[in-house]
Amino acid sequence: MSARILEGRQVADAVKEEVAAAVADIPKEVGLATVLVGDDPASHVYVRSKRRVAGQVGINSIHHELPAETSQEALEDLVRSLNDDDAVDGILVQLPLPSHLDEQRITTLIDPGKDVDGLHPYNLGLLALGKPALVPCTPQGVMRILDHYGIETSGARAVVVGRSFLVGRPLGLLLGLKGTDATVTMAHSRTVDLAAFTREADILVAAIGSAKMIGPDHVKPGATVIDVGINRTEEGLVGDVDFEKVAEVAGAITPVPGGVGLMTVAMLMHNTAVAARTHVG
Amino acid sequence: MSARILEGRQVADAVKEEVAAAVADIPKEVGLATVLVGDDPASHVYVRSKRRVAGQVGINSIHHELPAETSQEALEDLVRSLNDDDAVDGILVQLPLPSHLDEQRITTLIDPGKDVDGLHPYNLGLLALGKPALVPCTPQGVMRILDHYGIETSGARAVVVGRSFLVGRPLGLLLGLKGTDATVTMAHSRTVDLAAFTREADILVAAIGSAKMIGPDHVKPGATVIDVGINRTEEGLVGDVDFEKVAEVAGAITPVPGGVGLMTVAMLMHNTAVAARTHVG
């Protein structure tokens, strides 16, 4: 193995320190409302982790837990009351919602100024306009890893595999912003000869959701490989990248677990602090 | 010259016919408000052309002309009153505005449901989410040209040169949507070795704003070349593509004038009809 390991823990800790200092500097209590609907065990784990990290950085966590059979109307009423509540700077509605609920409607109902997940169309539109405000957490976490380890984006060829609105699309926009200046290719399941694209990448991001799909033949020697995938398999959690083999070829690589996954919660706290600072003016 | 010429006129006429039929089918008068501030001669020409085409397709054009010294407040009041006016289905504020006015604030003030230019962050966000509603006119016009001439996007390599929020960025999102399925590379002024990217393109879009910047060495033989540039030079209006020379290499090419430029107004009418249909429910 020759690749440098890009440790998510290190970067996430740096972000959390920064956020804790920012929060301490805001002349009001900073509040993050978490909304959890139903009994999905993974969602419970994620929300618990978000609340724990909020506590670590001095953010007041305001938790709402609703039964799986909650109606669309009741959830919308809750979101509206959180929009109006000055103690709430950020609103996180944990996805996925039970299937009878309309996620898109709920996401769009959240006040864009409290949309700390960055998934409101208004916030995605600001990103497309080159004026990002609250940016989706996982792609923002990827950018922080690149920045932390001094990986040059300007003039680099970046290839993002996967075009989800949670990760791939916003990350493509971020990498191509003025000042970041990568030349970005968005590849996906319909791309013909994927390896021909990925082998040209200086920065290769895998966000497909398919275990170990990216192998050493997909990677240019010395490239930076960012693995956003988290796939549950018989051998445990694995990424979209075949870590052992790709680490022989890449110049730098994020592990799974211990890579991008740790960044998501840290950037959620960052967004909450950004929102709070806007709320105090 | 070997390339097939992609005639904007033909496609624009097809769109206008389709819009006229759609407008005739809507059980109310369809209204497009045009707002022109100041004395910019090009803006006057553009708005006149938009009002004329509105008339051709049966859309009622409601025109507001304001002096160059109009205040931000007065313009915002006008936009608010147009938002509230049921006779108005679409609002077009002609850009650029005089420099003392805040374009971003005005664009964001327009009701997203009447934002027929598709430049409101909310509408750009819906596009980034893969759920386009009102889409910016010029990129949408490019997609219609490709569709009209049966140029396959699925599995194609598309390279868009230029990352403006008016054209390049939304066009990149459109080409990569599910169902359209091109593999899209966004190139720009900071791209290193531009020709290495453009020479791989099955579909090459030039939206840079630099006269004749794309020459035959940038183009793969047989590629489709779409020229979005409109540059005023001593030899008249020319595109971003060196048409005479590139037409020897390309398989298909849009001329300037007579190409993409004609599509923008046609797609504005299309968006106005889409908005009106939403308003009648």
How would you explain this protein's 3D organization?
Two copies of one chain form a homodimer. The N and C termini of chain A lie far apart (50 Å). Chain A folds into two domains: 28-112, Leucine Dehydrogenase, chain A, domain 1 (Rossmann fold), CATH 3.40.50; 136-261, Rossmann fold, CATH 3.40.50. The first copy, chain A, has a six-stranded parallel beta sheet with strand order 1-11-8-7-5-6. In chain A, strands 3-2-4 form a three-stranded parallel beta sheet, sandwiched between helices. The mean pLDDT of chain A is 97. In chain A, helix 6 (137-148) packs across helix 7. Chain A has helices spanning 8-24, 41-56, 72-84, 103-109, 121-128, 137-148, 168-175, 194-198, 243-246, 261-280, and strands spanning 4-5, 31-37, 60-66, 90-93, 157-161, 183-187, 203-206, 224-227, 231-233, 236-238, 252-253. Chain A is α/β, with parallel strands linked by helices and 281 residues long. Chain A is globular, with a radius of gyration of 19 Å. The interface between A and B is medium-sized, with 34 and 34 residues.
